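#onboarding

Welcome to the new folks! Below is a worked example of what a typical request in this channel looks like: someone posts a single protein sequence, and someone else replies with the predicted structure as tokens. Don't worry about understanding the tokens yet, we'll cover that in week two.

Example request:
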Amino acid sequence: MTPPEPTNRRHSAADTWPLIHAERAALAADLAELGDQEWATPSLCDLFTVRDVLAHLTAGASLNTLQWMAGVIRCRFDFDKQVAVQLAGQLGATPADTLARFRRVITSTSKPPLPAVAMLGEAIVHGEDIRRPLGIHRDYPVTALTMVADYYQGSNLVVPAKGNVRGLRLAATDGSFGTGSGPLVSGTTLSLIMAMTGRTSYCAELDGDGAAILRDRCMTK
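Example response:
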């Protein structure tokens, strides 16, 4: 079979920010009626509840490059500590406070020193980290998913996605995303994104000789 043509390409911030804002608004709407017990549900991020992950998203949307760097310096370049400090600062006293803080940054264009498409990736991946454990389904726009898949397959920033898919051929079954050569990994664009960013539960939704390789790599991280 002929390998798929790589779909990675540059996307302008002007094209990307409306998609980010739409994802944030959709997540806020999905969480509007959660009870306290649901807010305490473990997310797909280790040791984080769904409330914690939402506060983390708020923190990312509240920082510009200078603020992010100042926080890193205060935490002596301990990036995990910096994430924890920023998260705690956005958690609020109650789940309602957490959601209200998130709603205030829905249309923010502030970001750490990352490309805008990385913020779209954060919104989608962490949105699934929250939604999947709560049993909430979202039909993500395939255009947005393809942009994020394009970005992650070539990046090790934040998560080692590029390393996870090294030597594998990825092919989406619901869109145009395709990249790489080697053992095939096929599935929905969302499942490919979540698997390449280390969410092993999505590997069960993938097919091909490379699916087990990708799962094993994610499990050893």
